[in-house]
Amino acid sequence: MPTHTSRRSVLQGATAAGVVGLGGCLGLGSGGDDAENQTALSVPTLEFTFFARMQNAFDDAIDERDDLGGSFYDAGNSQEQQVSDLETPVSQGVDFIMVAPITAEGISPVVEQANEADIPIVTIDRNIAEGDAATYVASDNVELGRRSMELCRGFMSDLSDADEYNVVELQGTQGASVTNDRAEGASEAIDSADDLTLLDSQGADFSTEEAVSVMEDFITSHGDDIDGVYAHNDLMALGAHQAVSNADIGDVATTGIDGSEAWVEEIQEVDHYGTLAQLPEEMVRQSIDYGLQAADGEDLDDYYRIEGLEVTSENAGDYLDEYF
Asked: Edge-to-edge strand order for the sheet containing 303-305?
């Protein structure tokens, strides 16, 4: 297996060029291919503000550090593209790779290639089901799901004093570890409450457009029996908000996860809207530090947790001022 030193030597003689696929976006940071350490970051899609914030943090880190160069890849929500994208830094022999996989199993072939080449992989936000990762840096998505459902339950009780509250769930991309975890957390919250009933649960692929359609189906099936909506991300919370507003079924408590700008702007104006904000900038900064440690042969914990921040109308303005 190539050593850390031999990978670096290969990089110092390598070209900075790379193949850009249909969804892939390859860009070199200011460190270029002559920086002491080389890395790559691959995300599912820049259609999600959350991952665009990761790109900004990645670019900032490359600009600020003379010892780090790297490439960024946008998979365009294509599993095939993400695998193809990641094959490039593996073939270049980078020092470490950071990736938020589209699904837990989808990048298994390239994870195996990286493992065989002794290139550490740091998973961010979403984990892998097969192969070896040096570490996993993310929020505790089970906890985020539980807290978001509990926040929704609190909003429902603020809106009405009832013996029982009915909630619907908008799930994310099926097969993604984050979807499984956020569903598990919501289930824990429902099981621990004696006044919560899950009316319906359906996937909307983390998409606002898909969430509008699914929420319209929920409204057709359940109408004003719906007291609350728990969405696995803020983009779907926005979709639920649009569908509820168009249907005119009254106030519906709605919570999401991520802390995206558009949803938090809505939260500012509505007391029964909220989210559990993740901090992708901190995820990237810590992942770079851990990746460098792994490339130097240091042992890492299996998981490093990034705390989530509850955002409601009370602190939405402060949150926007700090992060946007």
From this structure: 27-28, 68-74, 37-43, 96-99, 121-124, 135-138, 303-305
